[in-house]
Design a protein that fits this description.
Blueprint (H helix, E strand, L loop, with lengths): L22 H42 L2 H25 L10 H28 L8 H26 L11 H22 L5
């Protein structure tokens, strides 16, 4: 009795880059490659639609935002950062060398850079929370203000320390203390000042 030990090697599935040998293989080859290309095109179209949807949402948020609200909040956060620096400068005691020095110029320019950074973060958070849209009530405005502070303050303080804007101990002796003091100070300042400047136009 003879035993056939030969094992048939499975025929590999032809790809789109391989050349068909018969007419039947050519027809199957065209059909398979067409389906593959259609799937790739569908995936590309879905990605483009997703990107377009994100851009449309961003543009819609910007169009619905009130420019006067954005300008007012930008002015207020700038005033907060400047007041924070002046309070630190006054409470640190007398300088060893009286007068305006180069280090003071560095601190002032760093303070303005920190104010611009906070304004950018605050505006982005305001667009996300829709706090700049007209018609929001006082309760929703206070809630959006708290959300903006929670989103902006840690990132702002961390970036300020990382880039060395202003004195290193302006918010506190440590980074955690700076974040905590900045959170309380910014939240209190914006809550009071936004109430007082509600009718600014």
């Amino acid at each position: 009795m003879k035993i056939n030990n030969s094992i048939k090697t499975p025929t590999p599935m032809p790809t789109c880059t391989s050349r068909p040998t018969t007419r039947a293989d050519a027809a199957a080859h065209v059909t398979r490659c067409s389906l593959s290309n259609n799937n790739n095109n569908d995936n590309g179209d879905k990605n483009e639609e997703k990107d377009a949807g994100i851009m449309d949402a961003i543009i819609q948020r910007v169009e619905q935002a009130d420019f006067f609200e954005i300008r007012r909040d930008a002015i207020l956060v700038t005033c907060f950062v400047l007041c924070r620096y002046f309070i630190h400068d006054i409470t640190t005691g007398e300088k060893l060398v009286p007068g305006f020095e180069i280090q003071d110029i560095v601190y002032v320019t760093g303070t303005f850079s920190s104010a611009a950074l906070l304004g950018l973060y605050w505006t982005a958070a305001g667009l996300l929370t829709r706090s700049f849209e007209s018609g929001s009530g006082s309760y929703s405005s206070l809630l959006a203000n708290a959300v903006n502070v929670a989103a902006c303050c840690p990132l702002w303080i961390a970036t300020e320390h990382l880039l060395g804007f202003g004195p290193l101990d302006i918010g506190g002796p440590t980074l955690d203390a700076s974040v905590a003091n900045g959170f309380v100070g910014l939240a209190s300042f914006m809550a009071v000042m936004k109430t007082l400047t509600r009718d600014w136009r």
